[in-house]
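Re: the request from the purification team.
They wanted to know what the chain is likely to look like in 3D before they choose a buffer screen. I agreed to run a prediction and write the result into the notebook, where they can find it.
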Amino acid sequence: AIATPERFGGLGLGLVELGIVAQACGAQTAGAPFLTTSYGAACALLACEDADLKQRWLPALAAGAAIGAVAFAEGSEILPAPQTIFAGGVLTGSKAGVTAGLRADFAIVWALHQGRPALVLAELAGASRRATPTYDNSRLVADIAFETPARLLLDGEAAQRAARHVLAHMAVVTAHEQTGGAGELLRIGCD
């Protein structure tokens, strides 16, 4: 809700304010994947022109009634040539290690559409999810297999720009959260 525009039920604040909240959550070791994943999902939705998807998901994210995930990775590259395919309104393929994937209501997925990279929104009710154990299981990381209806958000260069924007902003929020956790550990260590 912090960075979601007011017209969608959010507070309309910026990345700085979200960073402050993330740092405080990190200091309390609050497992709050929504700070990064739902924020990333909201960034992608805001970049698209689909008013129906924005109206459906942004108010739900702002209210905490929905959780969004970002499923871009395939291997070790940041934005690889996508192996997940979007064709005929169906997303096919898989994404490993998706933060919040175990509980998310939808995912913004890096996929291939008509030979071009794309961002698509897939509701996860029908997707196959397998929990992935991590050092922090509060992050609800999952491997997700798609054979799922999906909607195109962006494709081509617009999708690449939006994906880089999403990843950069998620990195800033994560860095704030980690700084909060490190600062608290330092405080405890000094006591």
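For the purification team: The CA atoms of residues 26 and 132 lie 22 Å apart.
Please add any questions underneath this entry.
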